[in-house]
Amino acid sequence: MDEAHRIVELIPRLRRYARALVSDRARADDLVQDTLERAWNKFHLWRPGSDLRAWLFTVMHNVHVNQVRASRDHAVLDDEGPEMAVAAVQGASLEIRDLERALAVLPPEQREVLLLIALEDMSYAEVAAMLDIPIGTVMSRLSRAREKLRALMHGTPVTVRLQVVK
Amino acid sequence: MTESTTSPVAEADLLAYVDGQLPSSRNHEVEAWLAARPEEAARIAAYRHQDEELKLFFAPVLDEPVPARLARFSERPSKWRPYAIAASFLVMGLGVGALAGWQLHAMRVPAGGPVGIAKNAAVAHATYSPEVRHPVEVGADQEAHLVAWLSKRLGTTLRVPKLDASGFNLVGGRLLPGDAKPAGGPSPVAQFMYQTQGGRRLTLYVRTEATNNTETAFRYAREGNVGVFYWIDRNVGYALSSADLNREELLAAANTAYKQLNP
Q1: How many CB pairs under 8 A join A and B?
Q2: Among all residues of chain A, which has the CA nearest to that of B76?
Q3: What is the ipTM of this complex?
Q4: Which end of chain A is flanked by fewer CB atoms within 10 Å, N or C?
Q5: Residues of chain A contacting residue B47, judged by C-beta atoms under 8 Å apart
Q6: DSSP letter assigned to residue B66
Q7: Which residue among B47, B58, B85 places its CB closest to the CB of A119?
Q8: pLDDT confidence bin for B127, thresholds 50/70/90
């Protein structure tokens, strides 16, 4: 089947993931557009016969990481760093029932892993390969993301390495 | 309670349970474990609920009309035409350094294959490389017998690369079970173990592949603390694993092995 055709078929999936990743609708479509442009220019790097969806999501991941770094609107790219300053400032029993807002509070690298697995149904191994990180890191990010989201959605205290900053 | 006879349930099991990525036998163990722990069961149920909510919340995006600025990508420019080049895995974020010195002629991996071999090889490495007394079934002192035996079981003529120049001496090898073939029946796998004088180990995992590749791919993966370089050459898949070598050292060993396997 024609690859251009298959890429176009995947656009709704890319848009859904982008929307969940950056929440703002226009910025999400910007991300998809940048991803498609990059994929377009780099298409000779795609290995025929390999998973086109995984490749496109990897391209999107790289574009997104570069944008996050450039914009610096999320300083936390390293999940060993101090985390959840937002929740700490607002109090440990923070209640955010709005799923979209709760997602936005997650550190980007945790949000990404959660969405690839929960929304895109990717296997841990696929996500590890895509993000070029060990499976153990995938699972620890997933674990933190889920627990944080649960705390945010249900107003229970965040227990995962959360310290209230005075 | 069945807990005493099974391995303890870790957070990783619980996550894999939520995501349907546990083997079914383990599923039952996790369910039994959760049945005795209502708080944990509630937490796991909440995670599942979260996932469902996520899917529901973002599902409408799939049905939205694609904006024109994105839809224009349906026109295929001539430069889209795929052609294999040696740098194709760069975009996958798999390391510029890995390319240095690598001399494969082209890149092509059947989808699904390599991930499987890398994971299986890493698991086998992690299982047998810590063995002090029984790291292998047949020792290097019987190398001719070892190679003949494993070649017969795999149904292909195997060669064992010599890595002595890199400081790795053959310890020996063993036969391992592989994934069942689509046509049914087992597909045995061979593992050769090497070791330095200092006790650092690497293993070469060899299995036959269903596809008959005319081009060779070469990729790197990591499973836990085990690094794996793997490639498929015609109908044989190779994976070189170690937890003791850094990526560059492992690459050098893989390069040496590849050259000897393709003189």
Answers
A1: 156
A2: A4
A3: 0.79
A4: C
A5: 146, 150
A6: P
A7: B58
A8: confident
